[in-house]
Structure formats: structure tokens, C-alpha cells
Amino acid sequence: LVGAERLESGNGYAILLSCLGTGAVVGALTLPKMRLKLSSDHISFIAVSVFAVATILTGLVDNFYVIALAMLPAGWAGLANLTTFNITARFSIADWVMSRGLALNQMVFFGCQTVGSLMWGQIAQVTSVYIALTIAGTAMFIATLTGLRFKLITPAKTDLQAGEEPKTEAPLPDTDSAEPGDSEAEVSSAETAVIE
User: Fold this and answer.
1) Burial class of residue 67 (count of CB atoms within 10 Å of its CB; 0-12, 13-18, 19+)
2) pTM for the structure as a whole
């Protein structure tokens, strides 16, 4: 909607989406080095803040090219947040529940995106697209305060050993209760069956 209205052309959406994708590619190239110097909390805080600024600019600025330029860091921020949460989940789940834990993480993440899209769509319908974007960006800044209380912890695998699935061993045959002639009788019956 923003691309079509600001550029007054159907190509507006494609241009904005291309800028988002370019920012994501830049993120894929730069994030590995950033992770060596910054914690997951710092990267998440920066990413949310950058995406919030880009969202507010999209709602307030009339110039299409400024909005397109803002989509570049927004693409980087989106990829940074997605990968940071996925990495945190990957190293915070015990191996024996890894698949279920990651599936639950993905379900919650994309489920919240779906619910959020519906909610902001309703707000945009009641007010306008630009007011909804401005409110959304402001809400993102407020959401960063949750990082002061809830940290993205990446524990070592050894911290999860107590939660590993218990291993069960097959029971050994009870040789004490067997009669002395039982094994010999079984061997002789087996030999008789082979001869027949």
C-alpha cells in the first residue's frame, strides 16, 4: 500500500521488497562477525530499534525514495532478529526434545506474526496505514524494554544434561532361576529339530 501510494505505480511494492531483500543479504554477510563481538541481547536490541525507526519513517515520510532507503536497514534488522531467536532456541533446548522445541518456537514466532498482521490491519482500517505504522514502530521501542527483564540466554550443552531423556537398557536373562538341565534340554531339542 505504501509503495503504490507513494510512487503511484504498481512497481512501488517490488522496489521496497527488493530493498528489504538486499538488506537481508547484507545481514547474512555481516552478522557472523557481529556475533563474535556482541551478545544476542545487544544484537536483538539493535535490530528491533532499527526496524522500529524504519517503520516510523515509513509512516511519517512522504518521499518514496527515503522509505526505500529505510528498507535496507529494515531488511538487515529482520534477518538479525529471526536468526538471533533461532540460534538462541537451538542452543537452549536439550537434544532429545530438539525437534519438538524448534517446532514450537517456529509456531509461536510465525503465529504471532500472523496475529499481529491481522491486528495492525484492523487498526489501519479504522485509522490509516501511516498512523498504524507509526504506532507499530513506537510499540517496538517500548517492547525493547522487555530485554531489561528477560535475557536471551545461550547456555552450554552441559547445562542441559540433567534434562536429557533417560536411557533404558534391555533386561538381562535371569540365569539364577534357571534349572541346571534347562539349557542342555534346549540344545538337544534344537539339534533334534535340525536333524528332522
Assistant:
1) buried
2) 0.72
